[in-house]
Known about the structure:
Blueprint: H1 2-9, H2 21-34, H3 38-51, H4 57-60, H5 72-80
Helix pairs in contact: 2-3, 3-5
Amino acid sequence: MNERLRMMQRQPRRITITLSYHVHEALLTRSEEEGRSVSNLCAFLLEDSLRHPAVPPTAQGPAATDAMGLTPSYAVESKIRGNGDLRRG
């Protein structure tokens, strides 16, 4: 029974998140370019950001932002940690 319980705990988990219109559109565009689903792209981006944590903008000087005002990897890390909106303030 213990082995079965361990196997069940290793199964992928589902979560629900709410994204801004612009972030969702960017994910749709990128997923189409890469030929993968939005779900798969999000899982990849989250796993990658956890494997390679970003240095907070305050420690590296002014942060470069994209067209939506997001700092690419720090924005995802900030959202994961519950530090508020994806936009820098």
